[in-house]
Write a structure and sequence with these properties.
Order of helices and strands: EHEHHHHHEEEHEHEHHEHEHHEEEH
CATH superfamily of the largest domain: CofD-like domains
Number of strands: 12
CATH architecture of the largest domain: 3-Layer(aba) Sandwich
Largest sheet: 7 strands, parallel
Strand order of the largest sheet: 3-2-1-7-8-9-10
Helix content: 40-55%
Distance between the termini: 22 Å
Radius of gyration: 19 Å
């Protein structure tokens, strides 16, 4: 399979998949990023409430990640006002909001944004419906709103039992469903398990498409635990949440980082309550017995004080799962 012809779908949201998209676009031009629309915090939340439109933040980040436009254009999209009436707002969010108002629909605005910023591939909302994310906590409380969930979990010193969406029968964006069915590989994650990944998987049509696609379905495990969301959870715990939704038979591969972080980074993250994900031998045996192939490797890099996926190494490994010919970068990442 020619590397330029490999059709890859990435499901997630937040900053996690943005790094991966920057790597993948060096190896294939056929990328579809399917992004959650449950965000209700920050600039996106204000725009969503005031204008009654889908939250633009996660979509903006993916647009920037896949853009081939001049660096100044990317900086323009990510610029955030520091004072005045627009303090806290991202200029990119406002551009998307303006185009939505001008064109009369969010999907028409996205089509324009793709052209303006010379996007490699496509950035697709998982749905055009107004979706609200809820979490049922282990202490019995139910929390409304994606941005509220981690805060309440930390405040109540409890854990998330499950998440669900309203409306439960929200309709998936047809192009997102088609992208999954036509893909060679579907990558789930990385990203916040309950607030970025699960909202998309909770869409009935997305679940069905994942079960029906002939594509290789790959779960990318996060590097660190996330305070207020996946505290103390292991690799196996993360995977169990996904299996409960889409079934073990749907998942072909599990990608897990096996590289440690520096002591300075470990200490810095520990102060915030985050730690490297643990992966025990019994978990490896149990997951392998389910028929899921485990691929471990050094997928981690430390950059500017942050721990993130090494986009180049990770992307090569992902694409090698659908092609026996090793991928060679056609552009420097």
């Amino acid at each position: 399979m020619n590397k330029q012809a490999t059709k890859v779908v990435v499901i997630g949201g937040g900053s996690g998949i943005s790094v991966i998209l920057r790597g993948l676009k060096q190896y294939t031009e056929h990328i579809s990023a399917i992004v959650t629309v449950a965000d209700d915090g920050g600039s996106s939340g204000v725009i969503r409430e005031d204008l009654g439109m889908l939250p633009p933040g996660d979509i903006r980040n993916c647009i920037v990640a896949l853009s081939e436009a001049e660096p100044l254009m990317a900086r323009l999209m990510q610029h955030r006002f520091k004072s005045g009436q627009f303090a806290g707002h991202s200029l990119g969010n406002m551009i998307i909001a303006g185009l939505t108002d001008m064109q009369g629909s969010f999907d028409e605005a996205l089509a324009n944004i793709h052209d303006i910023f010379a996007v490699t591939g496509r950035v697709l909302p998982v749905s055009l419906d107004d979706i609200v994310l809820y979490a049922k906590l282990e202490d019995g409380n139910v929390v409304r709103g994606e941005s509220n969930i981690p805060n309440v979990v930390k405040w109540n010193k409890t854990a998330i039992d499950k998440v669900f969406i309203d409306p439960a029968d929200a309709k998936a964006y047809p192009e997102s469903v088609t992208a999954i069915l036509d893909a060679d590989l579907v990558l789930i994650g990385p990203g916040s398990l309950y607030t970025s990944i699960m909202p998309s998987l909770l869409m009935p049509e997305i679940k069905t498409a994942l079960c029906q696609t002939a594509a290789k379905v790959v779960v990318s495990m996060n590097l660190m635990t996330q305070p207020g969301e996946t505290d103390a959870m292991t690799v196996g715990d993360h995977l169990d949440v996904l299996i409960d939704r889409i079934g073990a038979d749907t998942i072909d591969y599990l990608l897990v980082n096996n590289q440690t972080v520096s002591s300075a980074a470990a200490e810095r993250y520990a102060k915030k309550g985050a730690h490297l994900l643990k992966f025990s031998a019994p978990e490896r045996s149990r997951i392998s017995a389910l028929g899921i192939k485990i691929v471990e490797g050094d997928f981690l890099e430390e950059y500017a004080g942050y721990v993130r996926h090494d986009a180049a190494k990770f992307s090569q490994q992902v694409l090698n799962l659908v092609d026996t010919v090793r991928y060679i970068p056609h552009a420097k990442y």
